[in-house]
Amino acid sequence: MSTKKDIRALTKEQLRDFFVANGDKAFRGNQVYEWLWQKSAHSFDVMTNLSKETREMLVHNFVINHIKVDVMQRSSDGTIKNAVRLHDDLVVESVLIPTSTRTTACVSSQVGCSLDCRFCATARLKRMRNLNPDEIYDQVVAIDNESRLYFDRPLSNIVFMGMGEPLMNYNNVLKAIDKITSPEGLGMSPKRIIVSTSGVPKMIKKMADDNVKFKLAVSLHSAVDEIRTSIMPFNATFSLTDLREALQYWYEKTKSRITYEYVVWKGINDTQKDADALVAFCRFAPSKVNLIEYNPIDDGTFQQAAQKAISMYTETLERNNIVVTVRRSRGKDIDAACGQLANKS
Ligand code: SAH
Question: Which residue from 272, 189, 260, 169 is spatially nearest to 219, judged by alpha carbons?
Answer without folding.
Answer: 260
